[in-house]
Amino acid sequence: MTAEIITIGDEILIGQTIDTNSAYMAKALNLIGVSISRITSISDTKEEIIRAIQEAQSRTNLVIATGGLGPTRDDITKLTLTEYFNTELITYPEIRATIQEIFERRNLPILEVNLMQANLPKDCFIIPNKIGTASGMWFERNGKVVISMPGVPYEMEYLMQNGVLDKIKATFKTPSIIHKTVMTSGAGESFLADRIKDWENTLDQEDIHIAYLPSSGVVKIRLSIVSEDRENAQERIDRKVMELLQIIPEFVYGYDDEPLEKAIGNLLLSAGVTVGTAESCTGGYLAHLITSIPGSSSYYQGSVISYSNEVKINELGVKSIDLLKYGAVSQQTVEQMAKGVKKKLKVDYALSTSGVAGPDGGTDEKPVGTVWIALATPDGRVISKKLQLEKNRGRNIQRSAIAALNLLRLELTRNY
Amino acid sequence: MTAEIITIGDEILIGQTIDTNSAYMAKALNLIGVSISRITSISDTKEEIIRAIQEAQSRTNLVIATGGLGPTRDDITKLTLTEYFNTELITYPEIRATIQEIFERRNLPILEVNLMQANLPKDCFIIPNKIGTASGMWFERNGKVVISMPGVPYEMEYLMQNGVLDKIKATFKTPSIIHKTVMTSGAGESFLADRIKDWENTLDQEDIHIAYLPSSGVVKIRLSIVSEDRENAQERIDRKVMELLQIIPEFVYGYDDEPLEKAIGNLLLSAGVTVGTAESCTGGYLAHLITSIPGSSSYYQGSVISYSNEVKINELGVKSIDLLKYGAVSQQTVEQMAKGVKKKLKVDYALSTSGVAGPDGGTDEKPVGTVWIALATPDGRVISKKLQLEKNRGRNIQRSAIAALNLLRLELTRNY
């Protein structure tokens, strides 16, 4: 079964906003067996909205629109759909109450325009939004469905996960698609593909489709089967995953979109050990990844972000003579940072990073993208590693943090 | 004048690739007075490509397509366009020579499929690609133009800047579009809209279009004019922006997509002062925002991330009796954290955060989303603020960090 996505908003058409919503929705819909046949981005005008919906409905039974549901005058999607579906706005008291709660919780004054967000079309199934004022709307006429959601990414994601996907599954007969995603870190896509090519060649005869999905420092290997026999399909996939695990055990850290920082959190929790960090080039991003996991306060003590050399010397005990001799981006410095923060925060494991994130600051000897990472362990060892990354500051920060986490993962899986 | 963009490729429709090309093209085209009226993403099939081009040509005279020009079998854009425009492939010797040069330069063996990239449509203007094997193609029939470029972002960008934009300017009479985006922080979209509604009502008579673009803690207000008279339009927008500045001076921090952390970096640089941070609930994200700006090492010294109470006491000098009495999430604690890190890192300004990020850990008195932020200033004052956010951990971390940055911004703009 297919669907079309329509994103509404001038900000995409003038290039100010990159449309990340469509990729999120496409991925989530693919998982429930709905493939996207077209994505259309249009401006915030009544004529464009109506034209795009009419066209999409002529091709498919499911149209999913985002954007144009804010409280301000430039947002006209709700009024346009109300007119298009020949209905009228009525007040939904329970939605009004939710909106009031949101403002009370945040201790913000509520305005008339906010309350007007509870005026929604009659003859329309409302999908409540508990984290914003724009509700999701589900219009159904003669077996054809149009869904409208806000364009704010986290609100759209909330509605997808809390109503939209379930209602699509219940309304349309979607084929069963079984997916299993194997999460890997520590090797690039082409390296992995080469290592597992013989195994990959056996997937065809099982009707298993494979996809490599790389992102900073992590490569996901996704296996999928389209089948009505869920149980059998699940068994076939599980068997192949077991085989894969035997070929690349050192790279696999988890399954089904588990972030590396979550897998490490679980390893630390079950081993009953703590970790701290000392960051230079990653500037807090490593700590941010670790603390993005709920409950991380059980194993994460804290960090010293030593952006300046003074902080490296005074707070982490890096020897000033070594900073002079080897520089801040060196094996000597990064190892002393790890040891220093381990002692200071009294943790079992300590990670550190120091590098030239860029875009400037490189030298012939240490070009932009030169990064050292280190791990201090409970038995007094320090493991360090040099990375040679690229010119992009943001990506260098991300990849350094992931590489540091992977160093810790390898050590934890070896020990526990 | 308007144009439409068509992106061709299954990777976008399955959500594997986020379409960043469209935003790049839209921005570049806007600057030469071409506004994008629609962006359509379709799959790599002949029927879809032809249908999308026909539809787009029925609405506009300029269609710009990317994708599907690679050497592999699944890339069929070139063959499809050759058929659609009723022409044939011929070998372009100079393009063949360029492709050979590229492979020689990279020291790679050249394959037959690579050389076939020099077979291009007759009756078509070729835009040479010096950094890849897929040429740009410009088809022109009865005043209507279809441009085809590769989907690899840096190759598309190369072709836009080396041929496409100039040829569009030379071929079409393009009006000017002037945009100005005002960046605000510290107030929500509806609060701002209410504060500036009288001013907003005056925009119509100037033919100025307004859009509100909210994201975590920041609301962008974008003004646009379509006009032949660039200078006059710029003046009209500038005048309205000046008026706006007088209505909401405390919320405006910059223009044209400048991130808040960049604006603050500039304020710190020009004042010649330094900043440090002490983070609990934001767990490194505040430091990450600050250090995501190149050159931040000139004003950012570092951070103590005190995720545990021990670190708050030992490293930041928070009194254990206050931690017991008021808790970690309290005005007392967050103020002591700011003072402690200011002294420790010897910085002029220090920011601190402490809160219940969630999703668990809330109490009746301090529900999830309760966050305290504080700022210690050079003259010994400490300013603190309580936020009441929501249930989402990731969003609470983001919004707390932005609110802390905004506290610093308000203080810096007051002082310098």
For the largest interface, the chains and their residue counts are: A-B, 88 and 95 residues
Poorly predicted parts of chain A? none
Question: How many independent structural domains of chain A?
Answer: 3
Q: What gross morphology of chain A would you assign? A: globular
Strand order of the largest sheet of chain A: 2-1-3-8-7-6
Question: What's the count of strands of chain A?
Answer: 17
Q: DSSP helix count of chain A?
A: 16
**Can you give the mean pLDDT of chain A?**
94
Domain MoaB/Mog (chains A, B): 4-171
InterPro entries (chains A, B): CinA, CinA-like_C, CinA_C, CinA_KH, Competence-induced_CinA, MoaB/Mog-like_dom_sf, MoaB/Mog_dom
Protein name (chains A, B): CinA-like protein
Pfam family, one (chains A, B): CinA
In words, what does this structure look like?
Two copies of one chain form a homodimer. With 416 residues, chain A is an alpha/beta fold. Chain A has three domains: 2-171, Molybdenum Cofactor Biosythetic Enzyme, Chain A (3-Layer(aba) Sandwich); 177-255, Ribosomal protein S10 (Alpha-Beta Plaits, 2-Layer Sandwich); 262-415, Maf protein. Helix content of chain A is 42%, strand content 25%. Chain A has helices spanning 10-13, 21-31, 46-59, 77-84, 93-106, 112-115, 153-171, 189-195, 197-201, 230-247, 260-271, 285-291, 309-316, 320-326, 331-345, 393-415; strands at residues 2-8, 35-42, 62-66, 89-91, 119-121, 125-127, 136-141, 144-149, 177-185, 209-215, 218-226, 252-255, 275-279, 300-306, 349-355, 370-376, 382-388. Chain A has a six-stranded mixed beta sheet with strand order 2-1-3-8-7-6, sandwiched between helices. Chain A has a five-stranded mixed beta sheet with strand order 14-13-15-16-17, with helices on both faces. In chain A, strand 6 (125-127) and strand 7 form a beta hairpin. In chain A, helix 2 packs parallel to helix 7 and helix 11 (260-271) runs parallel beside helix 16. The longest helix of chain A is centred in the C-terminal third of the chain and has 23 residues, at 393-415. Chain A starts with a strand and ends with a helix. The model of chain A has no long low-confidence stretch (mean pLDDT 94).
